[in-house]
Amino acid sequence: MPKAKVNEELCIGCGTCESLCPTVFKVEDGKSHVISDDCGDCDCQSVIDSCPVSAISME
Ligand code: SF4
């Protein structure tokens, strides 16, 4: 199963990933954190593409 990863060096805490997929991403202290491995029905690629600083990857 793919697992989302956020590069905290790049993340600017804009909240886009959290608003698109609150199951997996939570912004706290100005950075997004991966809080679940369960991508569910979320379209991970669209979240990756929506990050303005390309901080999200899948592994
Ligand atoms: S969309 Fe990108 S920059 Fe914005 S909070 Fe998520 S990981 Fe950080």
Describe the fold and architecture.
With 59 residues, the chain is α+β, with helices and mostly antiparallel strands. The chain is 20% helix and 24% strand. It is built from two helices and four strands. The model has no long low-confidence stretch (mean pLDDT 91). Iron/sulfur cluster is lined by residues 6, 11-17, 25, 27, 32, 51-53, 55-56. The site of iron/sulfur cluster has 16 residues, from helix 1 and strand 2.
Describe, in short, the structure shown:
The chain has 59 residues and is an alpha+beta fold.
Highlighted features:
59 residues; alpha+beta; Alpha-Beta Plaits; two-stranded antiparallel ribbon; two-stranded antiparallel sheet; 2 helices; 4 strands; 24% strand; binds iron/sulfur cluster
What is the number of E strands? Answer: 4
CATH architecture: 2-Layer Sandwich
- What distance lies between the first and last C-alpha atoms, to the nearest angstrom? 9 Å
Unreliably modeled segments: none
Any idea what the radius of gyration is?
A: 10 Å
Oligomer, anyone? single chain
| Strand and helix order | EHEEHE
Q: Structural class, from secondary structure content? A: alpha+beta
Q: Per CATH, what is the topology?
A: Alpha-Beta Plaits
The level of helicity is 10-25%
List the helices and strands and how they pair.
Layout: E1 4-6, H1 16-20, E2 25-28, E3 31-34, H2 44-50, E4 56-58
Antiparallel strand pairs: 1-4, 2-3
The protein binds iron/sulfur cluster.
